[in-house]
Amino acid sequence: MKTEEIKALRQEILDKTKAYYQAKFAQKQFVAGQSRVNYAGRVFDEREMIHAVDATLDFWLTEGRFSEEFTGKIADFLDVEHVLLANSGSSANLLAFSALTSEKLGSRRLKPGDEVISVAAGFPATVTPIVQYGLVPVFVDVHIPTYNIDVEMMRKAISPKTRCIFLAHTLGNPFDVDAVMRLAEEHDLWVIEDNCDAFGSEYRGRKTGTFAHLSTISFYPAHHITTGEGGAVVTNDPQLAQLVRAFRDWGRDCYCAGGENNTCGKRFSQVFGQLPLGYDHKYVYSEIGYNLKMTDWQAAIGAAQMDKLPEFCEKRKQHFKKYMEMFGKYQSYFILPEATAGADPAWFSFIVTLRENLPFTRDEITRHLNEHKIETRNLFAGNMTRQPAFIGKNFRVADHLNHTDYVMNHTFFLGAYPGLTDEMFDYMEDVFAGFLAKFH
After folding, report:
1. pLDDT of 229 above 90
2. Could you say which of 85, 202, 269, 420 has the lowest number of CB atoms within 10 Å?
3. Is the pTM of this model over 0.85?
4. Cα 124 to chain center, whole Å?
5. How do strand 115-119 and strand 162-168 relate by DSSP bridges?
6. Residue 53 is inside which H or E element, if any?
7. Pairwise CA distance, residues 281 & 304, whole Å
8. What is the residue-averaged pLDDT of the chain?
9. What residues are annotated to the active site?
10. How far is CA 283 from CA 47, 244, 279, 287, 294, in A?
């Protein structure tokens, strides 16, 4: 078949993909009481499907042209130097932490027994790499209603063993970046910024994910953009970028992109470890690594999603405001969320905490909502130290976790994702009013 015929056939396939999207996905109506109000979900149109099919027709399954486009768009959006794609946000957290354990960092590398400041009121993927590498998480309580780390307690938690701070921006609300980075500078600490729930949030006019030595993003369907499964590590430090790449790519010392060879010009002329002189650099392994790469098919979807990220973030902010209006009537029952001073969150969700001594419990109201097809979630693990996997593990509690325990028992969140509609908000308001009317 001639080149022109192949191009025409490809275009026909892409045109039919658009028609398929319109036929299958475009027309969806919300029916109150029958349709589910999800807390999160993928929001896409024919562009993502066309990108995905286009990548499939290339059949370049590992990182390729779409990966380059995707990382370029992320780098431009955040104004950063290095973006390394991974197969999940949790893998991105693992890779960021792994990089800091490399012997190539000399005396600055993280070692078993070192302490890492974190919080117990969050998602396990921020803490598990600390445990997996034999370091000690130091759990600091959170502040309500920002749900981020208690800054004063964080300062007091520092010990001679403290080497790193590893924190997430809770549900899109940035932590007090000034306080964290100032403390890190004072004590010469590494900082990893888990930006998985906050991709597009800002702190003092600057995007989150750009302050720390390393930051991470998740592209799971619940997050600000999606590739299905997927994540990324971001840094402005070329050495850390190279280390992340090594750990991601089997521990390989070579940093050539897929399909490239001899980028360094010394592929067959170096000595590593106890290998013979000139051993092929592509098969030299300087780290105990993994294979945590993304496919080009996923990156193709991500490249299309990135064009929508600013709009998605604005919708999240608008939805947060609608919730504030809705819940503003019920402040005698609920503690409403607050943005950190100086922050402009692209909210992952709307989080509320029940006040003390109410005539109903968190579980009663969330059960009522779920019975009416309105999804809710607790603040992830609640209190990590009480989770089965962490009982008996080596960690330290900085002072107390009183607020964390309160969150575990009295807090829940609702969706703020771009797929919500005015009809859904009207329905949610009716359901809430119906439940709370019993207690007026």
Report:
1. yes
2. 269
3. yes
4. 12
5. parallel
6. helix 46-58
7. 35
8. 96
9. 223
10. 39, 17, 8, 12, 21
Helices (H) and strands (E) in the chain, counts: 13, 16
How far is residue 406's CA from residue 362's CA, in Å, rounded to a whole number?
Answer: 11
| Tokens matching residue 226 | 């999606």
In this structure, the number of other CB atoms found within 10 A of the CB of residue 25 comes to: 12
Residue 179, C-beta contacts closer than 8 angstroms, at least 6 positions apart: 151, 154
- Find out whether 227 and 294 touch, Cβ atoms under 8 Å: yes
Number of Cβ atoms within 10 Å of the Cβ of 237: 14
DSSP state of 207: E
CA distance 175 to 153: 14
CA angle 283, 287, 289 (to 5 degrees): 85
Residues contacting residue 360 through CB under 8 Å, at least 6 positions apart: 354, 435, 439
Sheet bearing 231-235, strands edge to edge? 82-86, 231-235, 214-218, 190-194, 162-168, 115-119, 136-140, 396-397
d(CA 122, CA 143): 13
For residue 409, report the phi and psi dihedrals to the nearest 5 degrees: -100, -20
Residue 302: closest CA among 44, 62, 80, 76: 44
- DSSP type of residue 210: S
Q: What's the token pair of residue 427?
A: 């329905």
Tokens 């999800």 belong to which residue? Answer: 38
Token representation of residue 180: 């964290």
How far, in whole angstroms, is CA 390 from its chain's centroid?
21
Tokens representing 332 are 């005698």
Place of tokens 């840094």: 235
- Which range, of 99-103, 232-236, 277-281, 352-356, averages the lowest pLDDT? 277-281
Count CB atoms within 10 A of the CB of residue 124: 16
Q: Is 426 exposed, middle or buried (0-12, 13-18, 19+ CB in 10 A)?
A: middle
Position of tokens 């970028």?
A: 241
Domains of the chain: 54-306 (3.40.640.10), 309-439 (3.90.1150.10)
